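Posting for a labmate who doesn't have an account.
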Amino acid sequence: MHLYDETTSGHALPIKTRGAQLRHPEGMTRAQAFDSDTTRVYPGWWWMTGAAQHLAAAGYRVLLEPSPAGRGGHLSVIFDGLVDARAARRHMCDLAPILADVREYRPGPAHALKWNKVRLPGGRYVSPEISAWCKLYDAQGQLLASNSLAAARVLLHYQTLASIVSSLEAYDKERAMPPDAATQHSELAERPLTTRMPQRSTPASWQADAPDLQQQKYGEASRFLWFHYSPAQVADWYNACHTVDDLLDFDQTGMANAEALGRPERTPSLGSTRDRQHWADFGAAARADDGRPTGGDVLELLVRTSGQSKAQVLRELGREMVAEARAELESAASRQADPPMWVQQIMSEAGWKHYRWLRDELQHHRTGPSGA
C-alpha cells in the first residue's frame, strides 16, 4: 500500500489526512475493503456484519470498523502477501453474496479514482461534527483496537493468508463460472443492455416454494433477465448519483487540474457549473474548432478520466446500476411497497414476477400459514 498526503476533500476542516491507496501494479493488492454509508438499508452495515461471519468461517481474518458518526462502516481484510484484486473480491463475494451488492469497494474500478483512497483501518475519523479514533472489531464483535497504537498492532498481526485466494484464471476454472453477460454485447453503446445479477442465498424453505415455471422456460438464464436498460438510462442513473466533485479535486478558486484528463498543467483549467453536474475544459489545447471549451456531464468526465471507451464504462456502470436496482427492489418487497420509479422503468416481466413472488413470500413468512 502506498501512503499519500493531501488536503481532504470529503471534510470541511483545513487539515491534512493520511491514508492509503489500495492499488498496486498488475492488479494486485494487499487489502480488500467494502464500504457502506448506511446501516439498515440493504446492503448496509447490518448485512455486512453478517457477511463477515461467513468470511471468518472460511478462514478470513476480517476487520470490522463501524463509523464513529453512526452510519455504516468498513469491512476490511489485510492479506499477508499480494493477491489478485479481482480474484479476491470474487472469492469473498462467492462466500458472502451480500458483498456483491455493496456498491463501494476497494480496490475499486480504475475509473473510480477516489474509491482507491481510503483511511487506514483504525485511523482517526475527522469531520466538522466529530473527531474520534475508529475502533476495530473481529467478525464476532470482539473489540480488537480502540486507539492508533492498538490498531497498528492489529494491522501487522491480524492478516489473512494470501494463499486463500487463487489466481483469477484458476478461480474461473475451478468455479466454471459463465462469462459476464454484459461483455457478450456489442461495443455499440446504442444497443440495449441486459446483465446478470449476483444471487443472494435463499433459505431452503423458500427454495422449495420458488416458482418453477420461469425456470422451465428460461433455465439458469432467467436470473439474467430481471432488468433491461439502455445506455441512456445508465447515463441518467449515474449523473443523478454523482457530481464532478466525485472525480476531480477543485481548489479554492473552483478550478481543477487537467492532469486527471491526461494533461498536466501549472494553472488549473477545468471548471464546473454551480450545480456540479457539468464541467468545462478551458485549456487552450482543449478547445473545439469554434473556440468554445470542451466539456460535458458527469458521465462524460468519467469516460475522459477512466481511459476506457464509453461502451466499456457503460457496461461496468450497468452492473453497478443493476446491483442498486436489485437492492431497491428487494427492500421495497420487504416493506410491501412499490419499487422506486427508476427501478420500475428498467424491470422486465421476469423482474416483476420475482418482485411479486418475493413480496408474497416475505408476507407469508411474517404472518405464518394461518395469517395470524
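Reply:
Got it, the C-alpha cells are right above this. Confidence is low (pLDDT under 50) at residues 1-14, 175-224.
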